[in-house]
């Protein structure tokens, strides 16, 4: 006798299909599992036997071999329990074999026969769909996220008996449907607004540009000027997520086991603000079975590092490669996985330990060497990756007295951001290019889309020589000026766009290079 069922396994962000074959013979009862299983998979032998017995289902008294294919890929975790047991029960004749080729089974079993939630169900269901499975059985607790996958029928399974009765056609499980209204109902209404920040017009403009093009920002200034306040309000001016973006971000949170049970989809851009005591592993991801870190959890959204120099040196440096590539590859003895990590980095810091270096009125009490040492915690390469570097100076009394009602709201700013993004999208779509945001432009795309007026070219050349720009810095200025021109709905990049871009990037000279 031979039975075949399907399930899926994770490899980084993507799932792959696993076929569970069960071959049985009328010999001494036994069960063996082959096909590169890890410990959790080997232990499934005991779990599925106990689950069946405790649910009142007879476990076949046959000599059985369970093979997990493809045999050359390592299978981890407990998500195969359900598929293995269905395979065994089919072999034993407890459930019919009809229709199994349409189905995929995902879930861990408890000894009592309950179906327990597993991580990464969204990715697993996507893999099942890729292989043409149209009915996917998932743990009831994971059903919401599974329902976000289009074109499959998702059955939430509470316990083994419920599944067996369904397969026998005795009592059907009601499939779950995706609630599209999550896109409107699930949106956060922000409790904070840009209008609450007084003064700081320069910083607000910089954040608007950052939102329009997805540029990284470094805010530097004395204590209490609104740096943290500004950064926390940054998500309020970001464009809303598209369905595809939502799926991508949800996949990562699903793998990390951080998706709330009743949430089918993350529809708000993540804003992650990890504390400076965190380790490089929690930032970039890792562990024996590598899990996504903060940079991947903020994919599609914002990573905010407040008090930047307080972060560990290696923590900061580990950001360099992902900032460049928009993804991170983690290599462990057991596996090599790649997770997306395309986020906007916002950093805030004081210019020195006492906080008042270059303050217009207050005196800085740090020694010259201390200031240097404090600032040098931020390495040149990391600094070079900050597209926008601006000062957030103290607010003057007059500005503080202005009422919030007179200031621009996040809503108004977001409208401009959306318009700029739409303008950029149309430009790319016209010749079939895909570009998520200007900050991701490749060198080829920069050449294609960043056309400068003669005056702008001359200005850029002068600045390049005067500021000792790196080649990366040069590209960043061009990307930044492209975004500024988009906000202006201007096809070509003019001198004023270049000049604003240069101003947004030249601060490192003042603090870091002297
Ligand atoms: N520009 C501003 N407009 C209105 N309120 C402000 C402004 N700046 C600071 N405040 C007030 O001061 C508080 C502290 O501001 P915030 O935490 O943003 O300062 P910071 O620049 O991050 O300082 P630090 O360098 O010490 O972290 C805010 O909660 C707010 O009440
Ligand atoms: Mg702060």
Outline the structure in words.
It is a single chain. With about 525 residues, the protein is an alpha/beta fold. It has 3 domains: about 1-165, 2-Layer Sandwich (Ribosomal Protein S5, domain 2), CATH 3.30.230; about 185-405, P-loop containing nucleotide triphosphate hydrolases (Rossmann fold), CATH 3.40.50.300; about 415-510, Helicase, Ruva Protein, domain 3 (Orthogonal Bundle). The strands form 6 sheets. It has a 5-stranded parallel sheet with strand order 11-14-17-10-18. The chain has a 4-stranded mixed sheet with strand order 1-2-4-3. A 3-stranded parallel sheet has the order 5-8-9, sandwiched between helices. Strand 12 and strand 13 (about 290) form a beta hairpin. The longest helix is centred in the last third of the chain and has 21 residues, at about 410-430. It is elongated, with a radius of gyration of 28 Å. It binds adenosine-5'-triphosphate and magnesium ion. The site of magnesium ion (MG) has 4 residues, from helix 9.
Question: How are the SSEs ordered, and which strands pair?
Answer:
Elements: E1 2-11, E2 14-25, E3 30-34, H1 39-42, H2 44-54, E4 63-69, H3 81-91, E5 103-105, E6 108-109, E7 115-116, H4 121-130, E8 135-139, H5 143-146, E9 153-157, H6 160-167, H7 182-185, H8 201-213, E10 217-220, H9 227-233, H10 243-255, E11 271-272, H11 280-284, E12 285-286, E13 291-292, H12 294-297, E14 302-306, H13 313-317, H14 320-325, E15 327-331, E16 336-340, E17 344-349, H15 368-375, H16 380-384, E18 388-391, H17 397-401, H18 410-430, H19 443-449, H20 454-467, H21 471-487, H22 495-503, H23 507-512
Parallel strand pairs: 3-4, 5-8, 8-9, 10-17, 10-18, 11-14, 14-17
Antiparallel strand pairs: 1-2, 2-4, 6-7, 12-13, 15-16
């Amino acid at each position: 006798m031979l039975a075949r069922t399907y399930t899926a396994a994770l490899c980084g962000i993507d799932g792959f299909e696993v076929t569970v074959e069960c071959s049985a013979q009328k010999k001494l009862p036994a069960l063996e599992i082959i096909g590169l299983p890890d410990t959790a998979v080997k232990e499934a032998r005991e779990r599925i036997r106990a689950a069946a017995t405790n649910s009142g289902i007879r476990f076949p008294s046959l000599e059985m071999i369970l093979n997990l294919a493809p045999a050359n890929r390592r299978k981890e975790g407990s998500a195969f329990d359900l598929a293995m047991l269905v395979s065994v029960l089919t072999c034993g004749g407890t459930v019919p074999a009809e229709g199994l080729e349409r189905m995929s089974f995902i879930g861990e079993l408890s000894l009592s026969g309950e179906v327990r939630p597993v991580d990464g169900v969204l990715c697993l269901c996507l893999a099942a769909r890729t292989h043409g499975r149209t009915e996917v059985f998932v743990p009831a607790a994971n059903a919401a996220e599974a329902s976000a996958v289009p074109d499959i029928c998702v059955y939430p399974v509470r316990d083994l008996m419920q599944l067996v009765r369904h397969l026998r056609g005795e009592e059907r499980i009601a499939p779950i449907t995706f609630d599209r209204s999550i896109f409107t109902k699930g949106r956060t209404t922000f409790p904070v607004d840009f209008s609450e920040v007084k003064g700081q017009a320069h910083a607000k403009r910089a954040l608007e540009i950052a939102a329009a093009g997805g540029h990284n920002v470094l805010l530097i200034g004395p204590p209490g000027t609104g740096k943290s306040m500004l950064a926390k309000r940054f998500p309020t001016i970001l464009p809303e997520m598209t369905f595809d973006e939502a799926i991508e971000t949800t996949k990562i949170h699903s793998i990390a086991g951080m998706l709330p049970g009743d949430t089918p989809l993350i529809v708000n851009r993540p804003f992650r603000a990890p504390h400076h005591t965190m380790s490089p592993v929690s930032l970039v991801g890792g562990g024996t079975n590598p899990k996504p870190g903060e940079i991947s959890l903020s994919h599609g959204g914002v990573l905010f590092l407040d008090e930047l120099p307080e972060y560990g040196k290696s923590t900061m440096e580990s950001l360099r490669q992902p900032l460049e590539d928009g993804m991170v590859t983690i290599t462990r003895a057991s596996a090599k996985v790649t997770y997306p990590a395309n986020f906007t980095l916002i950093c805030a810091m004081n210019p020195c330990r006492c906080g008042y270096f270059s303050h217009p009125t207050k005196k800085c009490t740090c020694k010259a060497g201390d200031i240097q040492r404090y600032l040098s915690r931020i390495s040149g390469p990391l600094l070079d990756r900050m597209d926008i570097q601006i000062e957030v100076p103290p607010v003057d009394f007059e500005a503080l007295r202005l009422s919030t009602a007179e200031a621009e709201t996040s809503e108004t700013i977001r409208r401009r951001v959306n318009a700029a993004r739409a303008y950029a999208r149309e430009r790319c779509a016209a010749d079939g290019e895909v570009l998520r945001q200007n900050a991701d432009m490749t060198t080829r795309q920069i050449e294609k889309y960043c056309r400068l007026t003669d005056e702008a070219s001359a200005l850029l050349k002068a600045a390049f020589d005067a500021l000792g720009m790196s080649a990366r810095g040069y590209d960043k200025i061009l990307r930044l000026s492209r975004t500024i021109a988009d906000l202006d709905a201007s096809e070509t990049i003019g001198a004023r766009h270049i000049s604003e871009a240069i101003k947004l990037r030249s601060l490192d000279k003042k603090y870091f290079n002297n």
